[in-house]
Write a structure and sequence with these properties.
This protein is flat. By secondary structure, it is an all-alpha fold. It has helices spanning 7-18, 24-31, 35-48, 66-78, 84-92, 101-108, 125-140, 145-156, 161-170. It has 9 helices and no strands. α7 (125-140) crosses α9 (161-170).
Length: 178
């Protein structure tokens, strides 16, 4: 949402119109604002005695209740040197990288805890696959819709299991035995 016009401009709208020689449209054109703005500023001045913009309404409501906000404030005061991630792990009791009891429960179930690689388009195997398909399609130089469909069908078949394994390894994923 754009910033409201300055209070000075809003006051000039009122002064010009109150002289009684200009219409809403003429005031708007002279000051470079819309007719609706002139009308709104004059109505605001009539109703409130001021052209100061009203505070913005709406937006997201607070996600934490008063008790939770107080608890978070106490947590931050008790640990002023912690990062937001570390504070979150203290708050929830589960660290994003060191699950403690969560890790033990996973391992007790016979599973291993593996962390995903960093989230980045450079670290997404599908991006590598699309890159190869697009490169092969461009090399075919399709010039109409049917040729594009054919080029895509041909290019997609050129992605091999070996390509996929290489992209997965490059992005940090480890192959799991079946």
């Amino acid at each position: 949402m754009p910033a409201p016009y300055s209070k000075d401009l809003r006051e000039r709208v009122g002064r010009l119109y109150r002289k009684g020689t200009l219409t809403y449209d003429e005031v708007a054109q002279l000051l470079g604002v819309g007719r609706a703005s002139v009308s709104r500023y004059l109505r605001l001045e009539r109703e409130s005695g001021s052209v100061t913009p009203k505070p913005a309404k709406g937006g997201a409501s607070a996600r934490l209740g008063d008790a939770s906000r107080e608890a978070v404030s106490e947590l931050v005061a008790a640990h002023p040197d912690k990062t937001p991630e570390e504070l979150d792990s203290l708050w929830t009791g589960v660290s994003p990288r060191e699950g403690g009891s969560v890790r033990r429960a996973i391992e007790a179930a016979g599973a291993t805890l593996k962390f995903l690689p960093p989230s980045s388009p450079d670290m997404m195997p599908i991006e590598n696959a699309w890159s190869k398909v697009k490169h092969l399609m461009r090399a075919q130089k399709p010039r109409d819709e049917n040729a594009i469909d054919d080029a895509f069908a041909h290019s997609a078949t050129q992605v091999t299991p070996s390509d996929a394994a290489g992209w997965l390894a490059h992005c940090g994923y480890q192959a799991q035995p079946m």
